[in-house]
Amino acid sequence: MPGPQRPTAILLMAVGGPDKLENVEPYLLDVRGGRPTPPELVDEIKERYRATGGKTPVLGIMREIVRKLEQKLNGPGSERYRAYIGFRHWHPYIKDAYAELMDEQPEQLIGVCMAPQYSSMSIGAYIKKVEEARAAAGGDFPVSYVQSWHEHPRLIAAIAGNITAALQKFPAEVRSRVPVLFTAHSLPERILQMKDPYPGHVKATMDAVCRMLGSVTARFAYQSQGRSSEKWLGPTVEETLDALHRDGHTHVLMAPIGFLSDHLEVLYNIDIELKQRAAKQGVQLERIAMLNATPPLIEILASVIEQHETSLV
After folding, report:
1. Pick from 56, 72, 37: which is nearest to 265 by CA?
2. pLDDT reported for residue 3
3. What pLDDT sits at residue 1?
4. Are the C-beta atoms of residues 206 and 257 closer than 8 Å to each other?
5. Which of 48, 160, 196, 228 is the most exposed place for a label (fewest CB within 10 A)?
6. Is the model's pTM score more than 0.85?
7. Cα(92)–Cα(98) distance, rounded to whole angstroms?
8. By three-state DSSP, how is residue 223 classified?
9. Are 147 and 118 a contacting pair, CB within 8 Å?
10. Using CA of residue 164, residue 168, residue 172, residue 173, what is the dihedral sign?
11. d(CA 238, CA 277)
């Protein structure tokens, strides 16, 4: 009799974040590659986490995604797929997730980053972490990666649906004229010299959403520029909001298409900081819902994984 089928391991990867305020400083130390964080910056980031619940919600969201994705992929009575969580900068680290899935001796490992658009500085860094773990721990199973899914039809439909729903937050008489400000995480401008596909991927996501929505006033900006001396991709979301205000707009909807779940750069940077900035200018600023662990995201991930497997055959 043949033995039981070895599972296909799905490693879902994200940046991660501190699980309590006391871990903000060690988390930042990891993000900064071991370089100490100035105390005033530690205090500032700690206050941001305090204002948004005292910890990142990402781990809880990811656990829910793993549970629902396994149910979706496996169906009743099957255990063909096992999903794991691996964070780049906090527990559970990618290397620890790899060690855990090694115990299962999977038939294969598929890595999926929880960011639809590829960059060598983001997705590429996750892949590097997996390869480092593989070099250290071994494993005779094939490893492959979903590198981009920025134009997946279900992703585009889910974002467009969330935009349509969020427009209901504005007075009926202005909804058709509310500009949608699409955002993604900024990266150092040197990626342009590297011919990195990230800016093109982000634009392709936005363009596809706009085509689905039809008539829409769209703007794009990068958010969360790093605090370093080098130049980062722009325009910034702050200067874009200011420009929309100067153009006479009093209502703006933000669509952070570079992110999938609630985390600090959404819950604080947009929901608190940017909302306050807009309010001072007399602008009503709203945001679309993140996909988090909702059914549309589970459908998207399942489809992305199934398409990836088909491409390997």
Report:
1. 56
2. 45
3. 35
4. yes
5. 228
6. yes
7. 10
8. strand
9. yes
10. negative
11. 8
